[in-house]
């Protein structure tokens, strides 16, 4: 697939096909730097912390199906309906929405999540307050399709307003926190108007022909976001999904999925962002794939750009194969997860790693194991990640480069068969000082090195090679 990402291709890192194409084709040359000084300050802070957690959680977790998308009447691989209600869309939608009456995550314990994420070195968190299906994981006054409704068994739990509980638990651990919110809502009559049955993910009527109905939807969306910005404590990021809800003027005809948007769906982002920043000064707004003043950072999905990008960006990636809970998940090895983070940071990005809670309100235990192992690496090597800037040549062969202004870091990403560092490595970058001290993070012993072409050749003692064997990434520090 061709990409227009600053005229650079995208290296598809993962096999999961879920909507990556919606983001990989996006043209980021239209990025607009924020003018608000508080937003700039928050963006700088966000760019320094590098590593975050995303969680997709909703009633769909009960069935272990792809989040919301089985409701979408499109003939795509990711929207296939399965199970006893699959043969009839209307019956399926009714059964899906009836999951509200059985969703009861009694093992919900956000403090455990926050502690595990902090121990892994994560420093910000985005939670799905509402996905495209419209089910609210917060106490919205605009709808009864929510976890706090008396229809939901969990509503009697003192922690039923899970968004409030989750944001609080992560804030208490020092995290920046964000609210994922879907601009489309497939549950309300002002989006999927029953008079016209939906044909696809888009609004089921032409907003130009029915302006009063669309205004009702705009107000509904505004009011729900206002609730999130008002009643849930400090919020740092408003992370908006559903990029087909956008003004016609922003549709990029060179992007295949945007060509299929039939109507202008202007949700009035200026009004939403203005309110959000009045309630939450400095709020980062991420109107995904809608380039311009309301996309404070770009969000390539299930992909890592293959080159350095000079704008703020974040790769959102799954720890397993799925965004939402499936009973048997295939988690990526720790080595791969750490290498993804190192690769992203060297190209000027952040990594947002998704873990999906199950219907009982708990993660797979394996997710905790992965986070603990990532944390062990970060404790030793975090200085090459946090508060750093990419250093040219950014990424070259198995090397990734960053700097914090005082020291430079060259990270060596081993192949799957490399369990120990070679006795001699050639670094394609020379230290700025002729008598620079060179060490490997995790060991204090200075290493011997000599000039070799445009780089240097480093000798690594056998004892050190054995001591540091088995690492996902080795980091050389040049001071």
TrEMBL record:
It holds the Pfam family Alpha_L_fucos. Residues 405-478 form the Alpha-L-fucosidase C-terminal domain. InterPro entries: FUC_metazoa-typ, Fucosidase_C, GH, Glyco_hydro_29, Glyco_hydro_29_N, Glyco_hydro_b. It comes from the Bacteria. Belongs to the glycosyl hydrolase 29 family. Keywords: Glycosidase, Hydrolase, Signal. Its EC number is 3.2.1.51. The keyword Nucleotide-binding does not apply. This is alpha-L-fucosidase. The keyword ATP-binding does not apply. Residues 19-383 form the Glycoside hydrolase family 29 N-terminal domain. It comes from Larkinella insperata. It is an enzyme of class 3 (hydrolase). Residues 1-20 form the signal peptide. Alpha-L-fucosidase is responsible for hydrolyzing the alpha-1,6-linked fucose joined to the reducing-end N-acetylglucosamine of the carbohydrate moieties of glycoproteins.
